[in-house]
Hints:
Largest sheet: 8 strands, mixed
Radius of gyration: 21 Å
Structural class: alpha/beta
Strand content: 15-25%
Amino acid sequence: MKKIAIVGDLPLWDAQPEPSQPADAWHYCVWLSALRKLLDNQNQYHIHWVIPHKGEVRKRVIETENQTFHILPKSRLTIGLYSGYLYDTFHIMNELKAISPDLVHSWGTENSHSIAASHYCGRKLLSIQGLLTACAKRARLARFERHQAFYEPYTVRRFGHVTTESPWAEERVREISGKSAFYHLEYAVEESFFRQDRNLSSTPTCLYAGTNAPVKNIRTLIKVFSSPRLSHVRLLLAGIKPDDVPDYPANVHPLGPVNREGMVKLLAEAWCLVHPSLADTGPTIAKEARVMGLPVMLTNSCGSKQHIEHGKSGFIVAPYDIAAMQESILQMTADAQTALRMGAHGQQECRSKLSSDTMMSKLMEIYGNILN
């Protein structure tokens, strides 16, 4: 049986023989947890998860029937950034040598995982979760993010095989490295978003979910809702605190941090989702909204546009086109029936493409292509 080593930020509770997700798990990459469960049901490969974790003092190994979890010590982010992740690379590379996998699959370019895995001499695959290089071209990054972005081009160029979750993301990676073989892999939406029915609020309501980072383009969105044209439409800002942005209009309501259960409820009640980002490889919230049956407004400067048919299930606009954004929102919130009809357009196709089973099937196909 061939061995695959997956290097990534799998939460430690998923490394247990019977994983039990705690209530505060909502901020982790849900697709990795879904993948861990799905890999238990395959018998083509023996899976070795390599998980650097800063709470560990020494290596631990947990074995289950089909998967083995190697939990390694990890340096603090600051030390890692300024030392080229030498400490993490040492531990990860030692473990990979001991495992001797037929394929190393690394998730994300924002941490030490991919830098370390890029030094592996055998077959290796990189899955892009976000591209700080693309963000840096479009908005100002925080100091730590600028240091993380410094390593990204070097890392990406060392992988011969790359998966991206959107055509936009593939275009951005090709700007860094055009020599890799590319695969389209949609990251699955968590199951709770498939089970919730819509229950629209009595007032036309748009939802934004994300951070206040400049790349998210929140200030443009607030300008959009400052217009009298949209005074009757509420904008809920999940993840944004009241003091993050000064001078909110009366119809804009910051909600602060929201867990996954709360997000499901907000999406069920919202009439539409708005995501004005300047650079997202495949915004998860947009996928969750489409799975639940919401129309979505995205900019043409980010991924996930493949799940929106312009004018039918949402709108794709330029990131600073305030008039186009206002018109899109007015159309999506014209009345409740319009919001439901637009959200239902193409919903079943989105559900099929973004299911865990589809992700698993595609990943097995990618593994087979690379190994054979």
